[in-house]
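Lecture notes, unit on protein representations.

Consider one protein chain, 133 amino acids long.
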Amino acid sequence: MFGQLQDRSVTARPLHGTVADVMDAAGPQVWYDMTVEVALSVMAAAHAEHLVVCDEDARCVGLVTQARLTAVRDSSRYTDRLRLGDITDGSDPFVSPLVTREEAEDAVPLGRLGLVPVVDNHGNALGVLTLSR
């Protein structure tokens, strides 16, 4: 587990500007080989609703929420060996901090609500954007 919290919260929320102006802190970052059960424990200890999942090079490969992890744990395919990398394949959308919120929402598949990781050119998680549509 990364043990670091990045505080990139912004106090003022401009109506226009880039994603960097409106994103929230990335939150706890963990390795993709962490088990689902350990991830739920980390979330509880950190009082977090989501975890940013990173590969061995510290690049963001996805984001998991407490609701998603709980659903996976309660499913029939769950085993205590199931890892975050097994449920996060890197196909979730990511956004750049340099695009506008409108451009970010247009780039994400229609109907997707919730959190989207904001990453730099190297795949490092900078924050999360909450989609409203």
